[in-house]
């Protein structure tokens, strides 16, 4: 585009400066003179009588006060026409400064970025449209007849549109991926508010307890439903008040294979999951899981069969239940070359090694004194399931992934029997998914979970972390299928930052050139395109802000809203502190030496 040149200015820089000084003087003189007239009338009324009110002549009030109030004394006029205006204007300036600072602090991080989404661009995520959409998705809201619907019933709060107070929410048909580095607000600004506001059942996976989503939401969620805590590695030192049967969904070859796949995924990366030994070990585990499930045996029996490949019990169980082909495959492996068989069985033993731990096995084997967690009942209510596992938990994290997978698949089946969607929807917050919830086909599940009223929010620390678990194609598939993508601060991957920069796009920028000559000053304006957010700006994204990429909309800058700054935060903070103290007390009690009957430390 050719540059546009404005006509030459006829004024010199000195003339411009004098003009600005004149405008500034007028801007100060008029309010001050007006305040002098108000002050003069006031002191004249107080010191003389009501008839001494002067007409509105602010200049005379300031410069010739005796002409307007001849009966008023000098001291009173000085106070009214000079002291009072000074005090009044200083007070107004102080109040204005305080309001400005309050506004500045209240909107810190809210500054809009030129070229990114405006209110009109993200209107489908604002209150009016998302409420109308929620009524379509949830018949219970339409039938309730309530005119004012609680915002938590219509969608998950993501934050405010930068520069505004407009709330941005993802609807209960969206599926989300959040890539946020540690201490960038992924838990305080995303996971915890989503859990606290969920209208239905909630599933949370995490590798932390104290001071995290577990303690912050445990008491609040306990008021709306039952809380279930599966803590096989005692991250929260939670008492064992539940057990879950992982073989409940393993009575078919497909279900048993999925369960075995979780043990493999928890132990190897996507690059090694397809090698011979991993695939063979997964097949053996699947066949043994199927045999145990068909005979309603505990999953720990599988470890006995792995220890003694010659044990014919699983072969007989498979044949007794009509799985002759599976039994033949198992027999072929057992009677195959000893070197190959031993390698396959040893690999399978390593993948399922967590089943050897009595403490872990207690959470997944029948217990008479605790309740059984049944996913089919869970997805129909408003209970909360906390699945806790350590990073690199191996087989223990396999059980966490298996339980989360079972809940989501059960929810899908229930939705299909209930008209196609869950109402209220179920929220699945998969925090630290790449560490403790490696569901191998999670990218495929993203394509239909949202349409069933199952809302997953997978939280990762980086894009590469997801590639390590699901591979390049798998992570790309999940990224593409996610209708909401939230990117927080701390993105240090240059390739991913550049990819985001290209997705956000370019915008037109005016370039103003000024030239001065003897005839005056001239300006020319030209247009050029530049990145709305270059890669270095994405890397330097301030804490408390995030980029939101919603399907079919321009990229938006969000101001995150941590739960501890919301109404009711004091009560939630106290509850979180109580839960953290309870964890500490349980940990100390376990660490204390036990005493025998004679009072001696055992």
Automatic annotation (TrEMBL):
> The organism sits in which domain of life?
Bacteria
Task: List the Pfam families hit by this protein, alphabetically.
Answer: TraG-D_C
GO CC annotation, single: plasma membrane
Which terms are listed as keywords in the entry?
Cell membrane, Membrane, Transmembrane, Transmembrane helix
| Primary site of residence | membrane
Task: Give its localization.
Answer: Cell membrane
The answer to whether UniProt assigns keyword Zinc to this entry is no
Cited Gene3D superfamilies: P-loop containing nucleotide triphosphate hydrolases (3.40.50.300)
Task: Report the SUPFAM superfamilies cross-referenced here.
Answer: P-loop containing nucleoside triphosphate hydrolases
Q: Spans of biased composition, class Low complexity?
A: 511-526
Annotated region (Disordered), positions in chain:
509-528
List the InterPro entries.
Answer: P-loop_NTPase, T4SS-coupling_protein, TraG-D_C
TM region positions:
21-39, 76-101
Q: What residue stretches are annotated with the TraD/TraG TraM recognition site domain?
A: 425-542
Q: How is it placed in the membrane, per its record?
A: Multi-pass membrane protein
Q: What is this protein's record name?
A: TraD/TraG TraM recognition site domain-containing protein
